[in-house]
Amino acid sequence: MKKEAIDIKIDDFFDFRNNDIIIVGCSAGPDSMALIDMLLKIRNKYSLKIVCSHVNHNVRNESIEEALYVENYCKENKIIYEHMTIEKYGDDNFENEARNIRYHFFEELVYKYNANYLMTAHHGDDLIETILMRIVRGSNLNGYSGFKKEVDMGSYKLVRPLIHFTKEELIEYDKKNHIKYFIDSSNNSSLYTRNRYRKFVLPFLKKEDINVHKKFLKFSQLLQDVNKFVCKERNKAFNKIFNNGKVDISKYLELDEFLQKEVLYYLMEEFYQDDLILINDKHIDLIYNMIISTKSNSTINLPNDVEAVRSYNYFFLRKVMDEVTEYEIEINDSVRLPNGHSIKKVKQSDDISNYTCRLSSLDIVLPLTVRTRKFGDKITLKGIGGTKKVKDIFINEKINVADRDEWPIVLDALNRIVWIPGLKKSKFDKKKNEFYDIILKYR
Fold first, then answer.
1. Domain 10-216 has CATH 3.40.50.620
2. pLDDT in tens, 262-288
3. Where are the alpha helices (DSSP H) in 19-157?
4. How far, in Å, CA of 26 to CA of 77, rounded?
């Protein structure tokens, strides 16, 4: 039985505040056009600043027409319009790469407009599909829960306010409100895994229960609550067994078997970052069996030229490279780096860019060293407070993966990152009118 069209009031499902700045991912599809319309209806009520972000994936002929429509829609409704076109793809997994590019663009806009929310139009059907795909593919508690309605990203929140509704409900909303939208023709192709679930599995589930999406949402939230507890225990365990980029196997084997697997999933999540989709249960099982085996030395080849290595009592992950790129050098007057650049102490400089860093020996512990990045590196950024992962900075700054492994990281004797040359300064950097007795230049 078909549901009656509903008039969704989005502020019944999310607590908006006055003067919120919101980046909205908009594809021109029925879901995102409905989300934009819902936000427009409450824009004046909360004095919202709405920025519409459209990504042209450049794989269909209709893409240009859709981009023009969204642009004109934004002009008519006085919405800020931002867009990008993906010119080329280099990954074997199109869906994964397109998603990564899309979210990196969204995050750039978050920082450009100092937004406090990034909103996407993911709905209840999307959640069902994601959970089912993860179950079939294999994952851990976090993966099996699908995705959250709200994710704290540090300086902003990623929000999916339509998670309570189905695709059908959103299309009916569009029809009732006379909202034009486009249907992506590729959604009908059975070549994509998600489409097969959408076409063949969801209709069966909805025939059993028209409100099955609400059951999946409850299931997702339950797993998320359990995962919060598990993560606390996993983090305690991880801190005990992980040091200097390596897992101490003797300590690892003392953990409960469930936590052993969770630690491996966490390690892979941190190492693979956006490419985690390439990892599944089989990889985790291979690594686990290698660790608990009696062999002292062994290696497993993983996707993206990564090796899982057991060396006596230690286990670690590493990128396979043609030549060794790791280094750690004490900074005296001048240091020549393997990437062709140098870091030099100078007596004076008017430069205030990220290529120059001013430090006070009263705040740091000498000597300073420069090295390549390590797993888990974090920096306390200047003027922001709190820490940010170095890997996230590389992603935000669009640093090539090959360059990240040679990029210099400057630390003091307490292993506190004081500067990422050319990219970011830490809280230890001094303004020109403050006291400093060390000036470093990266050139």
1. yes
2. 999 999 888 877 667 778 889 999 999
3. 30-46, 63-76, 94-113, 124-137, 141-144
4. 14
**Ramachandran class of 408: left when φ > 0, alpha when ψ lies in -120 to 50, beta otherwise:** beta
pTM metric for this prediction: 0.70
Alpha-carbon span 299 to 285, nearest angstrom? 14
* Residue 206 vs residue 94, higher pLDDT: 206
Match 């042209």 to its residue by tokens: 56
Question: In angstroms, rounded to a whole number, what is the distance separating the alpha carbons of residues 350 and 55?
Answer: 39
Multiple choice CATH, 244-319, 3.90.550.10, 3.40.50.261, 3.20.20.10, 3.30.465.60: 3.30.465.60
What is the rounded distance in angstroms from the CA atom of residue 83 to the CA atom of residue 405?
31
Classify each residue of 323-354 as buried b or exposed e, where b means 16 or more C-beta atoms within 10 Å of its C-beta: eeeeeeeebeeebebeeebebeeeeeeeeeeb
Region(s) of the chain under CATH 3.30.465.60:
244-319
Through-space distance between the first and last CA atoms of the chain, rounded to whole angstroms: 68
Are the beta carbons of 164 and 126 closer than 8 angstroms? Answer: no
Q: If you average pLDDT over residues 241-265, what whole number do you get?
A: 93
d(CA 170, CA 173): 5
Separation CA 163–CA 8 (nearest Å): 12
pLDDT at 43 over 50: yes
| Of 74-78, 168-172, 399-403, 429-433, the least confident | 399-403
Token reading at 392: 């996230």
Residue 328 pLDDT > 60, yes or no? yes
> Tokens 């893409």 — which residue?
63
The tens digit of pLDDT for each residue in 155-205 reads 899 999 999 999 999 999 999 999 999 998 777 777 778 899 999 999 999
Across-strand partners of 342?
Answer: 336
- For residue 213, count CB atoms less than 10 angstroms from its CB and return exposed for 0-12, middle for 13-18, buried for 19 or more: buried
- Spatial distance between the Cα atoms of 166 and 242, rounded to a whole number of angstroms: 43
| Domain ranges in the chain with CATH number 3.40.50.620 | 10-216
